[in-house]
Hints:
By secondary structure, the protein is mainly alpha-helical. Helices cover 32% and strands 6% of the residues. The protein has helices spanning 6-23, 44-48, 72-75, 106-110, 113-124; strands at 78-79, 84-86, 97-100. Strands 1-2-3 form a 3-stranded antiparallel beta sheet.
Amino acid sequence: MIEWSETDRMVRDAIREFVDREIRPHVDEHYWLPLYSMGSLATERERELGYRPIAGNQGRLGALREPLPCWSAFTEGHVTAEGNLSACCFDATANWTMGDLNRQSFMEAWNSEPFVRLREAHLRKDVSGTPCQQCVAYG
């Protein structure tokens, strides 16, 4: 069992309150994913807490799907801290940026030419030459 410090509990509770206040009113669905990281590179603090992060979305282990087409590119908007719309929840390096929400609406970014081309590649099940080609979950 994970032992939470007072600071960890305060951060956890603040995040929950933020999600309830700022996110849930604007989305159809919200769910928490287990911690994962790119290439299983856990930080020392994550190890101390007993986390065992791994690449991929093990939160859906009971309902795994074929990697292509990736459901995420068609059903979920991932907004980075900088305000970019990303095609992927793995976006830590802005490789999957499909639009800048500081300059365009969500729907403009969602239907942008780069996003349309990326989805077409997924439907063809050939993501060669796209950021998805090197996906850590499948490649």
